[in-house]
Amino acid sequence: MNAARVSIQSPLDLELLNGFQRDFPLQPRPFAAMAGKLGVDESLVIERLRFLRDSGAISRIGAVFRPNVIGASALAALAVAPERLERVASFVSAFAEVNHNYEREHRYNLWFVAAAPSVERLNAVFAEIEEVCESGPVLVLPMVEEYHIDLGFDFAAYDAGKGVRPSRVVCCPPVTLDETGQRVVAVLQEGLPVVERPFSCLGLAEKDAIGLIERWLDEGLLKRMGVIVRHHELGYTANAMTVWNVPDQQVSEAGRRIAESGRATLCYRRDRRLPDWPYNLFCMIHGKDRADVQARIDALSAECGLDALPRHVLFSCRRFKQRGAHYASMPETRHG
Fold first, then answer.
1. Which is nearest to 29 in space by CA: 199, 216, 224?
2. For a tag on the chain, would you pick the N or C end, based on fewer CB atoms within 10 A?
3. HEC profile of 147-174
4. How far apart are alpha carbons 265 and 259 in whole angstroms?
């Protein structure tokens, strides 16, 4: 999956990309509120956001859902023979439940994230992938504890993660949404329409839609609401997943140190899968190129006291699929 680099064309575009990745105005006319902050007309904000969306600089204006609250999700991997990788990746990406799918440098070379309305459906997806792809067992790594899951990018300084406040970690138990909630999720996961009154398009009264989103943010069901950027297209062309084998009694403290450092874009704990996978602390680092990412990893490891622990760095090689998680109205994909 090759993507064209998108250039930021104006100071206004930069303000829209940098200033509204979170804390999107929850008002009947949110783009008018943004325009007021920026000292421009509402119509110009709408025009530029449509351009940024259509050019691939942003994927949507919508919500980031907290994992495993309104459905189930997990990171997974396969060890695929190199000559079969593209074919297997294509099969995996065809699932509606798969939102990220990358080749990474490791024996387990195909890494994907799947999200589904239920654990049963998620397990069924992994079972079908394992049966059809014939690449050995799927390595399934559900998240145990989150420390920082809130991608933030500063396109003015071109610094990923640094200076972004650690995301608020809350205990939000799984919830079952009613039909109204599912309709709202279905729109938010695809993205709000870029029109004057986008909240009127959610299938319920405007004030009720805004109130529901506010409540979900307060309760932690939503991690943030805002402009969801496409970092690769905007210049962060390299990234790596770094994993450590941390003693269980130390992993939570290590994860919190990483989150507080501001150097990681994602950080979480996942179960080990012995003997094949001994690692339990994961973080993602993004940068302009491979050397930039490696330098960031080395600095993070030293700052957080992780240098003495076993680690592995899995650089991403190819991106086969990337989009937000889909939990509602997901038709099952047929495979021929």
1. 199
2. C
3. EEECCCEECCCCEECCCCCCCCCCCCCC
4. 8
d(CA 287, CA 154): 11
d(CA 180, CA 106): 43
* DSSP codes joined into one string, 82-125: GGGHHHHHHHHHTSTTEEEEEEESSSS-EEEEEEESSHHHHHHH
3-class state of residue 183 by DSSP? helix
pLDDT digits (tens, 9 = 90+) for 30-52: 999 999 999 999 999 999 999 99
Closest CA to 236 of 295, 153, 305, 317: 153
In 245-307, beta strands by DSSP E = 266-270, 281-287
- Rounded Cα distance, 230 and 57, in Å: 5
Place of tokens 């500063």: 154
Backbone phi, psi, residue 60, to 5°: -175, 170
| Distance, CA of 224 to CA of 22 (rounded, Å) | 6
Handedness of CA 243, 148, 152, 261 (dihedral sign): negative
Report how far residue 49's alpha carbon sits from residue 31's, in angstroms, rounded to the nearest whole number. 9
Element at 76 (helix H, strand E): strand 72-78
Residue 278, preceding peptide bond in cis (omega within 30° of 0): no
pLDDT in tens, 228-262: 988 777 878 899 999 999 999 999 999 999 999 98
Where on the phi/psi map is residue 39: left (φ > 0), alpha (ψ -120 to 50), or beta?
left
**Is residue 12 helix, strand or coil?**
helix
CA–CA dist 300, 84 (Å, integer)? 35
Distance CA 252, CA 256 (A): 6
State the residue for tokens 């038709």. 331
